[in-house]
C-alpha cells in the first residue's frame, strides 16, 4: 500500500494508546490501530514513557526519546 494520496505524503497528527494497541491519527482522516505487541519497547514502557512522544519529519514519523524508538507512518501502512 502506498502512503501517497494524490501525490501527498500521509502524515500523523496525533496518537493514543489503549491497554493493548496504539492508534495513530492521520491528517487525511484515517486512523491506524496496531497491536502494541508489534513494538516491544512500547509494550514494556510505562504509561508516562508512552505519553512522551513527538512527531518527527513534520508527521512522517513518531519518536520516543527516552525509549530510543521511532515508528514511521509508511511502515505502519506497509
Description:
This protein has 78 residues and is of the alpha+beta class. It has one domain: Uncharacterised protein PF10387, DUF2442 (NE0471 N-terminal domain-like). Helices cover 18% and strands 41% of the residues. It has three helices and eight strands. The chain has helices spanning 40-43, 47-51, 73-77; strands spanning 4-5, 8-9, 12-17, 21-26, 31-35, 54-56, 61-64, 69-72. A three-stranded antiparallel sheet has the order 3-4-5. The chain has a three-stranded antiparallel sheet with strand order 6-7-8. β1 and β2 (8-9) form a beta hairpin. The longest helix has 5 residues, at 47-51. The relative contact order is 0.22. The mean pLDDT is 92.
Main sheet: strand order: 3-4-5
Strand tally:
8
Structural class: alpha+beta
Q: How many helix segments?
A: 3
- Look at the structure and name the CATH superfamily: Uncharacterised protein PF10387, DUF2442
Strand content: 35-45%
Provide mean pLDDT, rounded. 92
Shape: globular
Q: Helix and strand succession?
A: EEEEEHHEEEH
CATH class: Alpha Beta
Largest sheet: 3 strands, antiparallel
Per CATH, the architecture is 2-Layer Sandwich
Task: List low-confidence stretches.
Answer: none
CATH fold naming? NE0471 N-terminal domain-like
List the domain count as a whole number: 1
Amino acid at each position: 500500500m502506498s502512503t501517497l494520496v494524490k501525490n501527498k505524503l500521509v502524515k500523523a497528527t496525533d496518537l493514543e494508546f489503549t491497554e493493548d494497541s496504539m492508534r495513530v491519527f492521520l491528517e487525511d482522516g484515517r486512523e491506524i490501530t496496531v497491536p502494541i505487541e508489534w513494538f516491544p519497547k512500547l509494550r514494556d514502557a510505562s504509561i508516562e514513557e508512552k505519553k512522551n512522544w513527538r512527531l518527527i519529519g513534520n508527521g512522517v514519523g513518531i519518536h520516543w526519546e527516552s525509549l530510543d524508538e521511532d515508528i514511521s507512518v509508511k511502515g505502519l501502512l506497509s
